[in-house]
Amino acid sequence: MALTFVGIDPNTGDGECPTVWVDRDAEEIIIQGWKVDETTRAECLQTGPIPETEAVVRIPARMAPILREACDAVERAELR
Fold first, then answer.
1. CA-CA distance, 19 to 8, in Å (whole number)?
2. Cα–Cα distances in angstroms (integers) from residue 63 to residues 2, 26, 44, 72, in the given order
3. Which residues are within 8 A (CB) of 20 and not within 5 positions of it... i.e. 6 or more apart?
């Protein structure tokens, strides 16, 4: 796996914040985000279970351009 850094929260202060990478080989987007609180998790569970192998994270809307860039990179990888 070779990850390509796409971007970090533009309002980062100490570097410990949401980050986005792309794994072009696996054609996947990797996201680091803030852990959600129990209230948010409970609301997410209303649509179905969250498997032990998955996590719900929160990232700020200001990162939308970074997510778009990651989506574009994955789509380009699919076209190879």
1. 4
2. 22, 22, 21, 14
3. 6, 7, 8, 29, 30, 31, 32, 59, 63, 66, 67, 69, 70
The boundaries of the domain holding residue 69 are: 3-78
Q: In total, how many domains does the chain have?
A: 1
What would the pLDDT profile of 28-66 be if each residue is shown by its tens digit? 999 999 999 999 999 999 999 999 999 999 999 999 999
3-state secondary structure of 56: coil
3-state secondary structure of 28: strand
pLDDT computed for residue 54 by the predictor:
95
